[in-house]
Amino acid sequence: MTTARDIMTKDVITLTPETDILQAARVLLDNGINGAPVIDESGRVTGLLCQSDLVIQQKRLPIPSVFALLDMAIPLKSSRQIEKQVNKMAALKVSEAMTENPVTVNPDTDIETIAALMVDNNFHTLPVVENYRLVGVIGKEDVLRTLLPKPGDNKQ
Fold it and tell me: With CB atoms counted within 10 Å of each terminal CB, which end of the chain scores lower, N or C?
């Protein structure tokens, strides 16, 4: 059975909450990665910054749609969602744009669970954590590679 340990990248590129947002964008682009775990000074994963967290900065300010019913205005988007988007759009530091408390897996998580998490939740990057410490990261490419024959296999 293939597990996270078998496919994870062990040399993980990480960011800190205080990293400048433009520097973080450069790190993602220069390394050709979709996302990077955000770790605090003790090495614990506190967030995940993905390209989509940065692309939002190019989005227009969301204008909430309102539904009128019996002289009442009912917003179709919650003010919390709007506030979250506005904060990401104006982010200067990674801590302001990252997804906090990301879903993580442990090294023994099987590939079927990893694939289901990625597909069902549209995750592109999953931090691998053991004893509260980051030990690796799995991207969709890592899962995709498991479909290819290994060197020396006679599969064609």
Answer: C
Average pLDDT over residues 110-116: 96
Residue 19 falls within a domain, yes or no?
A: yes
Rounded Cα distance between 7 and 4, Å, is 5
- Tokens at residue 147, please? 């479909």
Q: In sequence order, which residues have a C-beta less than 8 Å from that of residue 94 and are 6 or more positions away?
A: 15, 16, 17, 18, 19, 20, 21, 24, 38, 47, 49
Measured from the Cβ of residue 121, the count of other Cβ atoms closer than 10 Å reads: 9
Number of structural domains the chain divides into: 1
Greater confidence (11 vs 61) lies with 11
In the chain, beta strands by DSSP E: 35-39, 45-50, 66-69, 72-75, 99-100, 125-130, 133-139
Residue 150 within any structural domain of the chain: no
* CATH code of 53's domain: 3.10.580.10
Q: What is the pTM of this model?
A: 0.76
- Which domain covers residue 85, as residue numbers? 4-62+70-145
